[in-house]
UniProtKB/TrEMBL annotation:
Pfam family, one: Acyl-CoA_dh_M
InterPro entries on file: Acyl-CoA_Oxase/DH_mid-dom, Acyl-CoA_Oxase/DH_mid-dom_sf, AcylCoA_DH/oxidase_NM_dom_sf
Molecular-function GO terms, alphabetical: oxidoreductase activity, acting on the CH-CH group of donors
Residues covered by the Acyl-CoA oxidase/dehydrogenase middle domain: 84-174
Name of the protein: Acyl-CoA dehydrogenase-like protein
Length: 343
């Protein structure tokens, strides 16, 4: 973990990449991909920190993230466990357990979603005018050095992404700063731009997994089968970066278009998820078990990427894309372009 944190802080000492939609989105995603290509876990943690900078800026707190800090974004909302927020005269506090907190014992701060306690809602504590007693989720900033914050042991058993330390974190009356409602967090074009940023990380990790295959394919005596797999992988990676580059330009041209940003995110994440799976499969089929058994770095990259891409919801996200097109009254041409001959 010491080496991982050293690598991470080396990147954090560099200027934070420009926020998405400000004219340099492609450069932002290239940097995320490049860092993840070096180390998948470092890239995953760095992406969350960079996303925290974007989120806090969008929510009206552009100076909240300070140099020397490492922020996580802990927004998973499964049915259980539940993290609850309560407000008193002294301010907001969080109590309960938050699952799947990447960097659980490494981050200095985090953006955390929590459910507002019914007693708070019943006293007018919900900030968006929802009915008293209705479940309400909000987004909070938390200093993780506060008393009452404790990572829960043995809640992250993954082999891939093991070093990301993505277990549960327990909170016991921990002071927190409210930044907005869950809707404020979700109903932003930036939320979906951030989702594409994660796909850029998947792409970078896939390039690293493919590197041994691409190197072998250009060596003298490489078999036709190996070269065929390498050619297919190279074509897929070329298309993947072309897609990310194209969407980056579209984001910069229309940064506040929420419906289009949502559709683009589902499309890009679906494609890069399947691209990464193809890279893993073809690299293994072409090179056999040797690199997985004898090259620790390559084997870890394959294991890490296999877990990381499961942040995608696979066919569920694929099924969501037509729904987004219909409900947000987009046309397919808005997303995939109009290639019909109009002459």
């Amino acid at each position: 973990m010491t080496d991982l944190l050293h690598q991470l802080h080396e990147h954090l000492r560099q200027p934070t990449p420009a926020l998405p939609g400000r004219g340099e989105t492609e450069a932002r995603w290239r940097r995320l991909a490049g860092i993840t290509a070096q180390n998948t876990v470092v890239g995953r943690l760095y992406e969350a920190h960079a996303d925290a900078v974007a989120i806090t800026t969008d929510l009206g707190h552009p100076d909240l993230v300070s140099p020397g800090q490492l922020w996580g974004v802990w927004a998973a909302e499964p049915p259980t466990p539940v993290l609850t927020a309560a407000r008193s005269d002294e301010g907001w506090t969080l109590t309960g357990t938050k699952p799947w907190c990447s960097g659980a014992s490494m981050c200095t701060h985090a953006l955390v979603t929590a459910t507002v306690a019914a007693t708070t809602a019943g006293t007018g504590g919900t900030p968006d005018g929802s009915p008293d007693g209705a479940p309400q989720k909000m987004v909070f900033a938390v200093d993780l050095s506060s008393p009452g914050v404790a990572p829960v042991p043995d809640t992250w058993q993954a082999v891939g992404m093991a070093a990301s330390d993505s277990g549960w974190v327990a909170f016991e009356q921990v002071p927190a700063t409210a930044l907005g409602t869950h809707a404020d967090y979700l109903d932003r074009a930036g939320f979906w731009h951030g989702g594409v940023g994660v796909a850029a990380c998947w792409y970078g990790a896939a390039r690293a997994v493919a590197a041994p295959l691409l190197t072998r394919a250009t060596a003298a005596g490489a078999s036709p089968i190996l070269r065929a797999h390498a050619g297919a992988v190279a074509a897929a990676l070329t298309a993947g970066w072309a897609l990310l580059s194209s969407i980056a330009r579209a984001v910069d041209a229309d940064p506040h278009n929420l419906p289009l940003a949502k559709a683009q995110a589902f499309a890009v994440r679906t494609y890069i998820d399947r691209l990464a799976a193809e890279v893993i499969d073809r690299t293994g089929r072409a090179l056999g078990p040797g690199p997985l058994a004898s090259d620790a770095v390559h084997a870890q990259r394959v294991a890490d990427l296999s877990v990381y891409i499961r942040q995608s919801h696979a066919e569920t996200d694929e099924a969501a894309l037509p729904t987004v097109i219909a409900e947000d009254r987009l046309s397919w041409d808005d997303l995939i372009g109009d290639a019909r001959d109009t002459c």
